[in-house]
Specification:
The complex is a heterodimer of chains A (175) and B (148).
Chain A: H1 10-25, H2 27-35, H3 39-55, H4 65-83, H5 87-98, H6 100-118, H7 122-127, H8 132-153
Helix pairs in contact in A: 3-4, 6-8
Chain B: H1 2-20, H2 32-47, H3 55-83, H4 111-125, H5 130-146
Classes of the chains: A mainly alpha (175), B mainly alpha (148).
């Protein structure tokens, strides 16, 4: 029996909870490692990821998921730490990271609209001959950010942030 | 920074799935092994600054806003999927999931928001025993992988 036998998203919750808790409770050592980026860190993380992939009997299956995710998380963080050495890349990804909520909830909508209404146009397909995934992804991120800006301008901030009155305890509302 | 890196990977993943109808893998490499764990670790790092808030304040400031986002965007996706275009072609054959079912069965990529809310609440509940909670969470995940 596995967590997939449980209803809803139980399996996803159990799969990702360890990584979330690691971020919450081991933030200080993670930030300390991130302060001193070293090439050996990314080389070691990549070697670990390859070693894990090669040594597993079920390299793409469910039985080894947490081990692969663990190695992948270390590699991903090492890549992020390395990328942060470039001031421009760091500024770009930090800027994107601060807007991850509007991108996360909006990009799917933009992708659906692109695929349904824009992608079928032959002129558009000609534009997207090379690197279609990267271009579509770029348009989706830009579209989600523009959607966010437009909705905020229309006074629909509550789509992204709950109304203050709803989440302020009653005794604090009039202070 | 890590959050920005992983959200870009998430969008690229969905672009690929939309375009090709399958998840991208290259030989033994699947970007999912980096993308989602890093996204969760980055979300955890963000929460670490607020983990010591009073429990009631923590609920109001950290958990309920995530649930709000989940409810609002579930409604938006439902309305659009019914009236405009298919939002998640690979979920439920593109058909709308009944709203009552989304309480425990999130729709499409909104599963992340649901799991984030649950994990945030869980972190607050176990904050008195953080190391034990982390170890047990890994044990639970690995034993679920292997089956019991």
């Amino acid at each position: 029996m596995t967590w997939e036998a449980f209803p809803g998203v139980t399996a996803l919750f159990v799969t990702y909870l360890p990584f979330f808790l690691t971020g919450v409770f081991y933030a200080t050592p993670i930030f300390r490692i991130a302060e001193t980026p070293r090439k050996s860190l990314i080389a070691g993380a990549a070697a670990l990821a390859v070693l894990v992939a090669l040594s597993l009997a079920d390299p793409l299956g469910r039985t080894t998921l947490t081990l692969r995710y663990g190695a992948g998380a270390i590699l991903g963080l090492a890549i992020a730490i390395q990328l942060a050495r470039s001031a421009r890349l760091c500024a770009f990804f930090t800027w994107i990271g601060h807007r991850s909520l509007p991108i996360f909830v909006g990009h799917q909508l933009i992708l659906a609209l692109i695929m349904s209404f824009i992608w079928p146009l032959p002129q558009v397909q000609a534009l997207f001959t090379h690197w279609p995934v990267a271009l579509t992804g770029g348009v989706a991120i830009l579209g989600a950010l523009l959607l966010h800006a437009a909705l905020m301008r229309l006074g629909l901030r509550w789509l992204y942030v709950p109304p203050k009155a709803l989440f302020t305890p009653g005794h604090m509302r009039h202070t | 920074m890590a959050k920005g890196f992983s959200i870009v990977m998430v969008v690229l993943h969905h672009s690929y799935v939309f375009g090709y109808g399958e998840v991208f893998t290259w030989r033994m490499f699947e970007p999912a092994v980096i993308r989602m764990p890093v996204f969760f670790i980055a979300s955890g790092l963000t929460l670490s600054f607020a983990i010591n808030l009073k429990f009631s304040e923590f609920l109001l400031r950290r958990v309920l806003p995530i649930l709000w986002i989940y409810a609002v965007w579930t409604l938006i996706y439902t309305l659009l999927n019914e009236n405009v275009t298919t939002i998640f072609p690979w979920v439920n054959g593109g058909k709308t999931i009944p709203l009552w079912r989304t309480i425990y069965w999130p729709w499409g990529n909104l599963w992340f928001v649901w799991v984030l809310a649950a994990a945030t609440l869980f972190a607050a509940l176990v904050r008195a025993r953080p190391h034990l909670a982390v170890v047990l969470s890994y044990v639970a995940a690995i034993s679920g992988d292997l089956g019991w």
